[in-house]
């Protein structure tokens, strides 16, 4: 039975990817001299927030995820970051491979909210591996990669911020329901606003009227009684 071990030796932001993407460099080691023809891996990456300290500003930013700092003894639980499949080509003894992880800047995702709240330092990650190995000298044998294979890694916050800035320079990102987007588009068209930024700025300027009734996304956005003309 071949024993496998894993280590993460680095991470970089992929500047040529179509969307935000991190590339983790993995070192895979197989015991013995038997060749590994291929390795089909499943990798789960989790953030381990209890493994670092936080300043007061970061604690404020994490309050919606973990509550007040006084409760962190029970609420500071692991956060799912990614789940990725990887096919490692054949090797004997040791090899390295890139684990490509597409990311999101959706602030509804817990991991993104966690990362956005950090001002610096490192993100404590835990990588959990499992899968199937195809091994054998002069033959072919199928072996499992046990579920207890793991590797700890501390990713620089600066790397994540670099990745975000490559695709969303100086910007934030929010996800909205389709009916709300349709209402925003109608509002923008009616007022002949030149950009989404101008649209939201106009809505902010209009805020302060009475609470809108439920079920009307445009009224909820404008804070008016339904009239959207200037």
Task: Tell me what you see in this structure.
With 230 residues, the protein is an alpha+beta fold. It has eight helices and seven strands, in the order βββαααββαββαααα. A four-stranded antiparallel beta sheet has the order 4-3-6-7. It has a three-stranded antiparallel beta sheet with strand order 1-2-5. The longest helix has 13 residues, at 178-190. The N and C termini lie far apart (74 Å).
**Could you list the spans in which at least 5 consecutive residues all have pLDDT below 50?**
209-230
Beta-strand proportion:
35-45%
The main sheet comes to: 4 strands, antiparallel
Mean pLDDT comes to 87
* Strand adjacency order, main sheet: 4-3-6-7
Instruction: Count the beta strands.
Output: 7
Protein structure class: alpha+beta
Proportion of helical residues: 25-40%
Strand/helix succession: EEEHHHEEHEEHHHH
General form: elongated
Radius of gyration, rounded? 24 Å
Task: Please give a quick description of this structure.
With 230 residues, this protein is an alpha+beta fold. Helix content is 27%, strand content 37%. It has eight helices and seven strands; from the N terminus they run E-E-E-H-H-H-E-E-H-E-E-H-H-H-H.
SSE arrangement:
Layout: E1 4-13, E2 21-30, E3 36-47, H1 56-61, H2 63-66, H3 72-75, E4 79-91, E5 94-102, H4 110-117, E6 122-135, E7 141-156, H5 157-167, H6 178-190, H7 196-206, H8 217-222
Antiparallel strand pairs: 1-2, 2-5, 3-4, 3-6, 6-7
Which short descriptors sum up this protein?
8 helices; single chain; three-stranded antiparallel beta sheet; disordered C terminus
